[in-house]
Amino acid sequence: MADREALIALLERYEKRYPEERETLDRIRVLLSTREDAFERTCFEPGHITSSAWIVSRESGAALFTHHRKLDRWLQLGGHADGETDVLFAAMREAEEESGLAGFRALPLEGGPEILDVDVHEIPARADEPAHEHHDIRFLLEVSEDQPIVRAKRESKEIRWFTPQEVAAQFDEESILRMARKAANRSGRLPVAPD
Asked: Is the pTM of this model over 0.85?
């Protein structure tokens, strides 16, 4: 998946599974069709492509979260594409950089990469950046938790595994719970909250 046409094809396949998310998908497609710099973090109008991952433990099914330093909240791992048009590669790069873990596999293993979830959300203005949107493309990654986490200290306060029960108890944000349900459906594990 090395260019925006491949991403558009992935978005079309995703829409067949989740037609109710068409409005969000249309916003991402408009960004891709109107902004040559859509994958650059300097594209502020309306925003830019980011890539993240719902990371599950191969052994326990727990999900990996980072306590984001700037936003001061628990989030899935991920970040800016920084010009990379292969958003799966960007998600895996960010996962490795933020956690120090290695050996990520994109699920499903058969049939090639598929998008787990999409989300467009507002990022507030900061001293050097105007308010803008992150058009986040999310993948389901699996990794062994039998290796040490090495946190990227400048980006996160903490990184840790949450069991499905802890996810259900800790989070009330629909974006997180939606990813948890989709990941549970894809992996065959029990969801953290009812659909």
From this structure: yes
